Amino acid sequence: MSYFTEFVSNTTASSANQFFFLADPAEKHTCRVFYRVTVAGRFAYSLLFGNTLDSTYADGKVGQANMECLPWTIHALRAAPCNGVTEEDLPFITLTENTEVTSQRAYTTPPVELTVDNYLCIEMTFSGAMLPYHEETLLPILEKSDDGWQPTKKMPLPGMVGIRREVKGKIGFVGDSITQGIGTPMDSYTHWNALLAEKIGESFAHYNLGIGYARANDIASHGHWLERALQNDIVFLCIGANDILQGYPEQQIKNDLTDIVTTIKAAGKTLLLQAVPPFEYGEEKFPVWERVNAFLRETLAPKADLFFDPAPVLTADGKTPLYGGHPNETGCALWAEGLYQAVRHLF
Fold first, then answer.
1. For residue 105, is pLDDT > 90?
2. Fold annotation for 167-346
3. Is the pLDDT of residue 1 over 90?
4. Which single residue of 18, 87, 158, 202 could bond 149 by disulfide (Cβ 3.0 to 4.6 Å)?
5. Which residues on neighbouring strands pair with residue 188, listed in sequence order?
6. Is-contact 151 142, C-beta < 8 A?
7. Where do you find CATH 3.40.50.1110 in the chain?
8. Pair 217, 255: CB distance under 8 Å
9. Where in the chain are all domains bearing CATH 2.60.120?
10. Which residues are 119's β-sheet partners?
11. What is the DSSP string of 234-282?
12. Fold of 3-161
């Protein structure tokens, strides 16, 4: 997509299309979402929207990767700088009006110049019968009602908050809920890749492509999620926990991981491959986790540019999480520091 040659991500928050919700198509909703920006200053901003699910949700009985939502309408889309979550009037600039978002194409807003030093507030008035959203979002979202602004999750979110900026390279963090940041507080930006991005610095663009419940099988379907991942120069890949937890056949997990690694390297990208993190796998699935990680270490790591196993910094015995299956702030800080020491020579 030409969008990615012009714009780079300016937040380490993830806001992929994780699931969908149903609504009365005749009813308009007005919501605000707040993103902390990575690089402060004045830039041309453009937002990317898609209308298919990026990954499989929960047990996969309702939401699956590449499922198309029905067309929906952006009646008004505005953006403004702010210092955090607020219900106050802001100096909004209109990005687009009366636009239909379909599954046949990605929609990008025309670029507008904005000076943002802390948070970017995106306010949208929209309607539709079946709309994508992110059920496990860590982003603050408010919906306007007769009783004022109320917390919600049900708002279509941009797949990327892009700015026009020259960078040394584009880094994509591809993974599941652990990469997204589940386990850390909402709006805290203390997940491992947000902390790693701070260590690597602003000379690179950082794009969080982590999605709760996501599987390697979803990426290997070669949908929009993989397409966005391949727009980066450097890809950190950490995936497979949900394939194990959901009982995918072990050989299929290995095949999917092989496909992903092969595809990323064939596209000429630098691949920083990680082991599947420790989790509460249970007696039945723990041996699968061990064998999948052995496969990653012995078979796929030689195809990557670097391999990192977070287990030594997240456990005392190599298997039992000390900081939760979804690492908390302490676990993420240890992960980020350990990984940075392993990759710092690349930057």
1. no
2. Rossmann fold (3.40.50)
3. no
4. 87
5. none
6. yes
7. 167-346
8. no
9. 3-161
10. 36, 82
11. EEEEE--HHHHHTT--HHHHHHHHHHHHHHHHHTT-EEEEEPPPP---H
12. Jelly Rolls (2.60.120)
